[in-house]
Design a protein that fits this description.
351 residues; single chain; alpha+beta; 54% helix; 11 strands; Heat Shock Protein 90
Length: 351
């Protein structure tokens, strides 16, 4: 009797030990398969379609009897039907942008419990969902960049066309040597600006995702202001020393300075005799550039920064919107206000 009890006890212990070892072995095998799957997904660039295409050999390693899926995103369906009649484990999500559904039939081996299969289903589902979100976000970002790029190119092309139209008009007015000399002076002043815009357009066309320079450097802002003003033949009044140095991103600062001076130039055509005053000051944590003109006040100091809003005839309303975004990208802020001395644009750049 005691021998039978002892044998039963030993047998139970052996079963427990073997079961434990088997579960450990199966768990380690599944973890290895999951690690390989995650690695493959990374190599494939987090592409959900490639993940589905490469899924079958991994599931066979895991002893999965059958599986199916349904993926819908970017207006395309990807389907694999589960033909097994066995009970399956499913996972499903549906949003406005995509649908992800996964359906897996566990293997026949008892040791490979539903719990382990559920873990595998969760991992595959989360990988698919993450991949779809990554690709959807990337596509949306690329689309927005494409729209912005097209809009900004259209804006600069429009300025080139305006220059050609003005040149054509002036050519028709030339009827003596004095008129010819005036036309030559106009072209001498305007051609540098024309070249700058042409270079900007070519640069944008050569890059599907143009980026502002990301490294701040030592700059002399008043020299940059004077150079931009010279392109448009604008006189600048300032009490700031020309050799004052600040630290900022050069291309971003140049874009903002040129746009504000261009806006003043356009305004000065209809408001003869107005002046532009530019000064730079330094605080503990920031620099402030102040552009004030002696002309009429701004109709709406916040609305002018909205996209496609313009107070100018045939204006696209892109310049100031773009400049505010550039300022934010530089860690600063661009605002406007009306004062008793005239309207002011304030550019604050954090150190």
């Amino acid at each position: 009797m005691l021998d039978n009890v002892f044998i039963a006890f030993i047998t139970s212990c052996l079963i427990i030990i073997l079961s434990h070892l088997s579960v450990k072995f199966v768990t380690n095998r599944y973890l290895g398969i999951i690690s390989q799957l995650i690695k493959m997904n990374e190599v494939d660039g987090f592409d959900p379609v490639m993940l589905l295409r490469h899924l079958e050999p991994f599931l066979k390693k895991a002893g999965i009897k059958d599986f199916g899926y349904y993926l819908f995103y970017h207006n395309v369906e990807y389907v694999r039907r589960n033909v097994s009649q066995k009970k399956s484990i499913t996972k499903f999500v549906h949003t406005a942008e995509y649908t992800v559904y996964i359906d897996i039939v566990p293997g026949l081996r008892l040791i490979e419990s539903d719990f382990i299969t559920k873990v595998l289903v969760e991992v595959i589902f989360l990988l698919l969902k993450a991949d779809v979100n990554i690709q959807t976000t990337a596509a949306q970002k690329a689309f927005r960049k494409s729209v912005e790029l097209q809009t900004f190119i259209n804006h600069d092309v429009k300025n080139l066309i305006q220059f050609v139209n003005v040149l054509e008009f002036n050519l028709k007015q030339v009827d003596d040597d004095a008129g010819y000399r005036r036309l030559v002076r106009y072209m001498q002043k305007s051609l540098p600006g024309l070249k700058v815009r042409a270079d900007k357009i070519l640069s944008a066309l050569n890059s599907t995702q143009p980026e502002m320079d990301s490294v701040p450097e030592k700059l002399m802002p008043m020299i940059m202001v004077t150079d931009a003003a010279g392109i448009y033949g604008v006189n600048i009044h300032s009490d700031t020393p020309a050799d004052m140095v600040i630290t900022a991103r050069k291309r971003g600062l140049a874009v903002i300075i040129e746009n504000i001076i261009k806006n003043f130039y356009d305004k000065s055509i209809s408001e003869r005799g107005i002046s532009l005053f530019v000064d730079v000051s330094e605080e503990d944590s920031s620099y402030t550039m102040r552009f004030r003109d002696s002309g009429s006040p701004i109709s709406d100091c916040e609305k002018i920064f909205e996209p496609f809003f313009s107070g100018k005839v045939n204006g696209l309303g892109i310049g100031l919107f773009h400049c505010r975004n550039v300022a934010a990208g530089m860690g600063g802020k661009l605002t406007a206000e009306n004062t008793g001395e005239g309207p002011v644009f304030l550019l604050v750049i954090n150190k």
